[in-house]
UniProtKB/TrEMBL annotation:
It holds the Pfam family OKR_DC_1_C. Belongs to the Orn/Lys/Arg decarboxylase class-I family. The keyword Lyase applies. Its EC number is 4.1.1.18. Keywords: Decarboxylase, Lyase, Pyridoxal phosphate. This is Lysine decarboxylase.
């Protein structure tokens, strides 16, 4: 069945969850079920002013007409089937705890305690949580690194092949595709390798939910043969924050194990407002996705071409395939600002406070901007103008040591599994005394949520230097007990 078939489009016009929720919202019954606000009648005046009553009238629990998230029938089952067809999966699960719960469930469903899983070091912190829940043991691979852009790329097929030859008992491979900056690795070759070894490929595709719907974008992970993908439908499509999807295909992953694992990490009181937003986002992309994304790509191209013309700025572009960099999502705009003599974190402050522009991800040397179906030509012009004003305000200062902190994501020795470290006794000590000790904390700048230190890992001077650099320049550090970074939690010997 092709996406353009009349039969497909006819089915995709349906919105089962939205239709039933609309009917229930307008049903004049006396509600003696939760939530306690009783369809908006009991909300505070401040909430009524902020959101109105409509959203609360649709805040309805798992009534029979809707079906259950954990035993899907009725509208819920129909909505997930339509999503699987639209995104090219054999089966799809709606997620209301974000992609985080999908990633944790994916690991728990494919790995038992002590099982090995191969993973790039630039994973989101949710993966580490999945290791803690499942008891799986990571084999970390160094992703390729671009020192000019200070960007972590993807792992390479050759590095994966080498580790698989050395570890015959690996149970799964985990891949980030695309990265936060839209960089895509050679997933086609990686799929060929995992199939040869008959192990499942799990993909964190949080930032690639739109790939399926336009040929000018990188191919989706499922279309290239991945066994499982987790997508943040809210990040680049039209769903509400916290609403994501998990997709599987093939026979290497047991769907029942996915369902069981999701019960560990999802609320037993799921929001049908969030779930219906997934239903609506799916319908929108199935019927209008190519047109909407064509406009989005045009906006991104306008931004790229105009920002490239501004002195002292660089724009990340895909020129040719190289290790770890096989493709690029053009709707993810990354702008290098080091030639201006200020950090991306400082630029973000200026943009937010003075120019009414907010980046998705400011880092030391660059900023990333998400251009999606919700952006307008006015947004793009405002962004371009902000960079023009910025360029006129700052002169080049090549002595600024933005990259003086060594890159922190090279794996340091893992002395304990993340699960063992999570439950081990810990002690808080001065940060200067932590080097060489075993980390008891999951510490990362956020976003992007890539851990610099994780439980069970040896604390290195490079990691400490990087965290201090981020903190000095105004970045946010999460996961540390002492938010001032004067102390860290270490594992007691």
């Amino acid at each position: 069945m092709t996406r353009s078939s009349d039969f497909f489009l006819s089915r995709q016009e349906s919105t089962p969850l939205i239709d039933v929720l609309t009917t229930l919202k307008n049903k004049p019954d006396a509600a003696f079920y939760v939530p306690g606000h009783k369809r908006g009648q009991g909300i505070s005046d401040s909430l009524r002013y902020l959101l109105g009553e409509g959203v609360f009238q649709a805040d309805i629990p798992e009534l029979p007409e809707l079906g259950s998230l954990f035993a899907p029938d009725e509208a819920m089952a129909k909505a997930q089937i339509l999503a699987s067809e639209a995104f090219g999966a054999d089966r799809t699960w709606f997620l209301v705890n974000g992609s985080t719960c999908g990633i944790i469930a994916a690991i728990a469903a494919t790995c038992n305690p002590g099982d090995k899983i191969i993973v790039p070091r630039n994973v989101h912190q949710s993966f580490i949580m999945g290791l803690i829940v499942s008891g799986a043991v990571p084999i970390f691979l160094n992703p390729e690194y671009d020192p000019i852009w200070d960007l972590t790329l993807s792992i390479t097929p050759s590095s994966l092949e080498k580790v698989l030859k050395e570890n015959s008992d690996v149970k799964a491979v985990f891949l980030v595709y695309p990265t936060y900056h839209g960089v895509c690795g050679d997933i086609r070759s990686i799929v060929a390798i995992t199939r040869r070894y008959n192990i499942p490929l799990l993909v964190d595709e949080a930032h690639g939910a739109h790939f399926k719907f336009h040929d000018a974008l990188p191919p989706s992970a499922l279309s290239l043969g991945a066994d499982l993908t987790v997508q943040s439908t809210h990040k680049v499509l039209g769903a509400m924050t916290q609403a994501s999807m998990l997709h599987i295909q093939g026979a290497r992953i047991d769907p029942q194990k996915i369902s069981q694992a999701l019960q560990l990490v999802e609320s037993t009181s799921p929001s049908y407002i969030l779930l219906s937003s997934l239903d609506g986002a799916r319908q929108q992309m199935a019927l209008q996705g190519e047109r909407l994304l064509t406009h989005t790509i045009e906006l991104a191209q306008i931004a790229v071409e105009n920002i490239k013309k501004i002195d002292n700025l660089g724009v990340l572009e895909f020129t040719e395939k190289r290790p770890g960099f096989h493709d690029l999502d053009i709707t993810r705009l990354t702008v290098n600002v080091t030639a201006l003599g200020i950090s991306g974190l400082e630029v973000d402050d200026i943009f937010r406070e003075k120019l009414q522009v907010t980046a998705e991800l400011p880092m030391l040397s660059h900023l990333a901007f998400v251009i999606s179906i919700g952006n307008t030509k006015k947004d793009i012009n405002q962004l371009i103008n902000a960079f023009r004003i910025l360029n006129h305000s700052f002169s080049s200062s090549p002595d600024l040591p933005l990259s003086s902190a060594p890159h922190p994501l090279h794996p340091s020795p893992l002395k304990l599994s993340p699960r063992e470290a999570f439950f081990a006794p810990k002690q808080s000590v001065a940060i200067e005394q932590c080097i060489g000790k075993i980390s008891g904390e999951l510490i990362c700048p956020y976003p992007p949520g890539i851990p610099v230190l994780m439980p069970g890992e040896i604390i290195t001077s490079e990691a400490i230097a990087y965290l201090k650099k981020i903190q000095k320049l105004g970045g946010m550090i999460t996961g540390c007990t002492d938010t001032n970074l004067n102390k860290l939690s270490i594992i007691l010997n």
